[in-house]
Amino acid sequence: MVIILGIESTAHTFGAALLDGETFLSNVKDSFTSEEEGMIPAAVADHHIRVLSDVLSKALQGRTDIEVIAYSASPGLGHTLRIGAAAARALAKKFGAKLVGVNHCIAHLEIGKKETTAKDPVFLYASGVNTQVIAFHEGKFRIFGETLDMGVGNFLDSFGRKKGLGFPAGPKIEALAKKGTKLIDLPYSVKGMDTSFGGLLTKIETLNEPLEDVCYSVQETVFAMLVEVCERALAFTGKNELLLGGGVACNKRLQDMCSSMCKARGAIFHVPANEFLVDNAAMIAWLGKVTYEKGNTVSIEQAGINPYERTDEV
Ligand code: ATP
Ligand code: FE2
User: Fold this and answer.
1) Which residues lie closer than 8 Å to 228 by C-beta, 6 or more apart?
2) Whose CA is nearest to atom 4 of ligand 1?
3) Sheet with strand 23-31: strands edge to edge
4) Is residue 112 part of a domain?
C-alpha cells in the first residue's frame, strides 16, 4: 500500500494525517483559537509555525516510508497556505516522495463520501468561508447555489465576535441557542438556491433581547434557509441523498433539520463524524490518494498555492 501524508493549512487549522490504503494511521491537528478576537491572518500564520513540527512528528509516528505527500494548495489564506506548501516541499525532498496539491473544498466533500455510504449526493458545504449546494453532474462538481455575501460560519463568527464570544463562535452559539425560548422574527434571505447573511448580521446588532434568544433565533433562521436550498437542489437534480460537510455541519440542530427534511421526502441523510467536518488533514490525504491514483502529481518547483480557486474550476 502507498503511504500518504496529508497536510492542511488553509486557515485556522494546521493538521497532518497519515493514510495507509483506506485506513488513517493518524489525524493530528492544532487549531488557532481566540478568546476575544477573530482570525487575523498573521496571527494564524504565527500559530501554524509554532505548532508545525509537533503536529508533523505526531502524525508521522517516526515513519519515513512516505511515498506521497498531499497538501492543501487552494483555496485559503495566502499567509497560511504557504506554510503547508513549504512543509510539503521540504518533506517531499527529505523522503523522496511525490507531491500532490489538492483543493480544500473538494476534500471536504470527498471525505464525506469515504466516511458514509453516500454514492451520488447533493452536498451542503457549510463552513467558514463557504456555503454552497453542490452536486456532481456531467464530469464535474457544479455549484447549484451559494452565499451571495459571506459564508454561514463567517456570519456566525462575526456575530459572535461582536458579542465577545471569541473564535470560533459556532459551538458557543449552539450551546447558548439550547437555552433560548423565544423565536425573534429575523430577515430570511433565499434567492433561488442562493443565500445571503449580511442583512441578518446588520439586523441582529439592533436587537435588545437576551443573547440565548438571539442565538436560538439566528440558528432557526439561517438553518431553515440552508434546508430550503438543499431541498430545492434535491428536487431539481432528482438525487435522493444529502451529505453535509464543513465545520458548521457539526451543529446538531442543523443536522436534525436536514434529517427531518430528508425523511419527509424519502431521501437519505448522511453526515460524517465531527473530526472529518471541521478542517482536518485526513481529508487532504484522502483526496491526495484519489488524485495520485489519477496520475496528477506536481514537481517540487511547481508545487505552489492558489488562494482563490473555486470548487467548480477543478
Ligand atoms: P472553508 O472550508 O470554507 O475554507 P474553514 O476551513 O474556515 O472554511 P471549517 O473548519 O470547515 O471552515 O469550519 C469552521 C467554521 O465552523 C467556523 O466558522 C466555526 O464557527 C463553525 N463551527 C464549528 N462548529 C460549529 C457548531 N457546532 N455550530 C455552528 N458552527 C460551527
Ligand atoms: Fe474548511
Assistant:
1) 190
2) 129
3) 23-31, 13-20, 3-8, 68-74, 98-103
4) no
Q: How many domains does the chain have?
A: 2
92 and 147, same domain (yes or no): no
* Per-residue pLDDT, 100: 98
> What is the biggest distance separating any 2 CA atoms in the chain, rounded to whole angstroms?
60
Domain harbouring 244, CATH code: 3.30.420.40
Q: Whose alpha carbon is nearest atom 8 of ligand 1? A: 128
Distance 312 CA to ligand 1 centre (A): 21
- Domain annotation covers residue 306: yes
Whose CA is closest to 101, among 124, 128, 74? 74
Is residue 303 domain-resident? yes
> What are 87-108's pLDDT values in tens digits?
999 999 999 999 999 999 999 9
Q: How far apart are CA 150 and CA 159, in angstroms?
A: 12
Q: Is pTM, for the whole model, over 0.70? A: yes
292 alpha carbon – ligand 1 mean position (Å): 28
pLDDT at res. 54? 98
CB of 250 closer than 6 angstroms to any ligand 1 atom: yes
Residues 288 and 262 in one domain: no
Residues 172 and 232 occupy one common structural domain: yes
- Name the residue of 27, 248, 284, 308 to mutate for ligand 1: max ligand atoms within 8 A of Cβ: 248
195/116 Cα distance (integer angstroms)? 27
Confidence at residue 122, expressed as pLDDT on a 0 to 100 scale: 97
Tell me the CA–centroid distance for residue 78 and ligand 2, in Å.
Answer: 14
Q: Do both 15 and 83 map to the same domain?
A: yes
Low pLDDT (below 70) residues in the chain: none
Domain of 66, in residue numbers: 3-105+279-313
- Inside any domain, residue 110: no
Say what the pLDDT of residue 137 is. 82
